[in-house]
Design goal:
This protein is α+β, with helices and mostly antiparallel strands and 361 residues long. It has 9 helices and 10 strands.
């Protein structure tokens, strides 16, 4: 090797490696700005489509070509809207004056999954919108239905965007016009006097209108569900299964929605409603758990098999599509080969003529 080349390799190449490594570290740091981990860092930043919080996504919003959301269900969780009112009385444990503002404000929010397409996503499956390959993380709103419904571009009704604890009467039920009204329980007086209603969440993750005895709308005061809101829930499931909320320089519902959202986990406080449609959150949380005990842990994103696996390392999405397509191609190819051989044999086989003459002819 010429001396000049050895000198160039010894000085220039390491410099390039250091610069690239520094760039990778800076990009990964933007995906999770949480400084509370302590001795370890978030190993999930190794994945190209991982962002830890809505705020981290907003910081890198210009890096995406498109963002999509997928409706995950009703989320009974923290509400910044109620906190801005300065009172948590409708969800407190008592109607006594001294208890006001002491409990966490909770309301019916929306749990959803976020997907993103980056400029480097060249494969068809990664550019298709909502798939494992483009999954970022799962969040829930802090302002109820308001910004999530707004992102539907009027495909979903906003009639329930501000349905918080308010006085209820039987006239409200008769004149609602939703077509979904159905009393599910015989409890309560039923005369509508001194009853309050609020938008709640059913045990199956659907939005419902619940009636309470007293103006606190606290769980202990629950009377019955007056409206299952079937049409509204069906509309969310039909129109918000893979909705574009951001397209670079053209569409931006993402800024408002992500500004009033928070990350959920499948093992934390809000695990009951946190959506994990592809099993990716399990991988993320498994990695964080391992990193607590092994601070230098780095996930092997190229591993082919394993329980805690994402799309890019398991036989799904594009990999499954390629395998299925290859199998079908082989099967049809084999069939055509056999048919071609049979047709050729039928055409070219010699014909044998047998002249049978009678005995004594």
């Amino acid at each position: 090797m010429p001396p000049f080349f050895r000198l160039w390799r010894a000085s220039f190449v390491p410099g390039i490696v250091v610069r690239v490594a520094a760039l990778m570290v800076s990009v990964r740091g933007d995906r999770d700005t949480n400084s509370l981990y302590g001795a370890y860092s978030n190993p999930n930043v190794e994945y190209g489509h991982y962002w830890a919080t809505p705020a981290n996504v907003l910081e890198d919003l210009s890096s995406f070509e498109r963002l999509y959301v997928k409706f995950g269900g009703c989320a009974w969780s923290q509400s910044s809207t109620m906190e801005s009112y300065g009172s948590c009385s409708q969800y407190s444990g008592s109607e006594d004056e001294w208890w006001q503002n002491m409990g966490e404000c909770r309301a019916s929010n929306v749990a959803y999954s976020l997907y993103g397409v980056l400029p480097g996503d060249n494969s068809f499956w990664r550019r298709s919108g909502c798939s494992k390959s483009t999954f970022i993380n799962s969040f829930f709103t802090l302002d109820g239905l308001y910004n999530f419904v707004a992102a539907s571009n009027a495909k979903v009704s906003n009639a329930y965007s501000s349905s918080y604890c308010s006085e209820y009467s039987t006239d409200d039920n008769e004149n609602s016009g939703s077509g979904d009204n159905r009393r599910l329980s015989g409890s309560g007086s039923g005369d509508g006097e001194e009853s309050y209603s609020t938008l709640g969440c059913s045990s199956t993750g659907r939005f419902v209108e619940d009636i309470f005895d007293g103006e606190s709308c606290y769980g202990a005061n629950y009377l019955y569900t007056v409206d299952t809101l079937d049409n509204f829930n069906d509309s969310l499931e039909d129109h918000m299964q893979c909705t574009m909320i951001y397209k670079k320089n053209k569409i931006d519902y993402a800024t408002q929605l992500l500004s009033y959202s928070q990350t959920c986990t499948i093992t934390g406080e809000y695990k009951e409603f946190c959506p994990d449609p592809h099993g990716v959150l399990m991988t993320y949380e498994y990695n964080l758990a391992v990193a607590q005990n092994y601070p230098n842990y780095v996930p092997n994103i190229q591993r082919q098999y394993g329980y805690y696996q994402n799309d890019w390392s398991s036989p799904s999405d594009a990999r499954l599509l390629k395998k299925s397509g290859g199998s079908l191609f082989f099967a049809f190819g084999s069939l055509f080969f056999v048919m071609g051989f049979y047709i050729r044999y039928k055409r070219e086989r010699p014909e044998f003529k047998c002249n049978v003459q009678g005995v004594g002819a």
